[in-house]
What does this fold into?
Amino acid sequence: MTAERLSIGYVPLTDAAAFIVAQELGFAAEEGLDLNLIRLSSWAQSRDLLGAGSIEAAHQLVPMPIAQTLGLGPPLPQVDLLMIVAHGGQAVAVSNDLARRMRADGFGFDFVHAGAAGAALRAASGGRLRVGVPFPFSTQAEVVWHWLAASGFDIRSGAVEVHTVPPPRMAQTLAAGEVDAYCVGEPWASMAVETGAGALLLPARAIWAGAPEKGLVMRRDIAEADPDRTGRLMRALWRAGRWLDQPDNRGTAAELICRPDYLNLQPEVAERGLQGRFLISGQGEARQVPEFISFHEGAATFPWKSVAALFAERMALQHGLDPQAAMRRAMTCFRTDLYRQHLRAAGADLPGASAKIEGALRAPNPVASEKGEMILRPDAFFDGRVFEPPFADS
Amino acid sequence: MQLSILIVERDKDRALRMVDALREAGDYQIEVIAEENGLRRRIAAIAPDIVLIDIADPSRDVLEELALASSPLERPVAMFVDRSDEPLTRAAIEAGVSAYVVDGLRPDRIKPVLDAAIARFNLFQRMRAELEATKTALEERKVIDRAKAILMKARGIDEEAAYALLRKTAMDQKRRVADIAQQLVMAAGLLT
It folds into this structure.
């Protein structure tokens, strides 16, 4: 049997690992697929190629299909997020200048407490801050806006500017003084330390423990035209994610994703995020972050509709849309139905509900599921924010 | 007005060839940004009518942010492609996703692309002008309605007669009805 070739666009980041592992370790081949992984250099390019049908699927920022569903961007065919392929994996870096001032004020860079870090940052910056994020519609943008607002920054006055910077250029942009801080997925956060541009301040999960990062996104007509193929792709990625969440496999994963064909980097840098062992400054200070990035555990791959609503609410407020209508529409592009249909056969445990209260868990918590084995991981916001989806989940 | 075109391109030779091709194609004000540093600030400062950028350029996401911040339709972004990924991106462009393609940098190909970009730019300018005109027309009608009401009350005439009077005055004075109405409303405001 010859494998069916599928073109998939990805942007070089650690959180694309499930796609790379699925292809390199045979999870795709098991499902009769040959993934033609195409490295892209911008999210706009990914969105355009997917919309035009030049690629069949894409590794995209979770908020991207939501923004498109809300009409924020060019008019393209409807896309859906079929599953989450990476959870967490982002970190915040600050410039050397800010880091110095924060240390002078006695801040210890514990890499844990977002509230204390936010307060120290506000004091050191005088409340004026320019922050880089990878795209206007990104988990990073949500995390940054929420964290700064809850830390007492006046985000409506123009004192805080959030700018788009391509991930591979984040560290350079910080070094050039064009931004004072940035939030991005690994390995581009660690690159600030690696290149001497700055220091790591926080993993994003210290701000929001449940921050989903990337999804498998497909055009609705293409996903539905060949449901069998869609299912095979989802299962290959799901199994790759399960492999990635075995702690012993993380070192191998770093080697795989850093190959010249993929991220083309030194595996040592990518390994920091994958192993949760960070160097946060040029002085060699080390910090451990358990569960920094997840590909499988804690129902990490399930596309909770409540997450879609959470992102949609801020987008609606920022772009002058009706929040209630926006949340309702956004929830339709998270395809819990396809997840249930296609991944049950692979052995995925399926939750009883398709939406949940976001931010309520400070400790692992069992939830109702088909097999009764589902334990959700903590998803709390640092400031106790709780987001309740406004509608029934189906 | 001279059209200003901004080329975002790191490769100096490629940028120069673009500039040459553009100069042959017409009289444009052309700027090149080769340095990615400060791209956002510099584009905002130049405020170009058209941005030319490679479809695979990482800085596209920066343009995306700028497009969201202003009206995305006001600043056409033309894409050009002449690298190995052309078959892939061509489909995207042909689907109308990202506007226009310049094959290689042949001047004969640049011209139609620019024409298309300019046509789109003009279309949106025209749409904006029309919108403006509609708004003005609405405003004027309101003023005329008020002027008619003043006349009806002051002279005890009906609406049709009030409008006829306004129109006759306008014709006599070789002015627009809306202007006469405006004067009347202002004068009435002074008298009460």
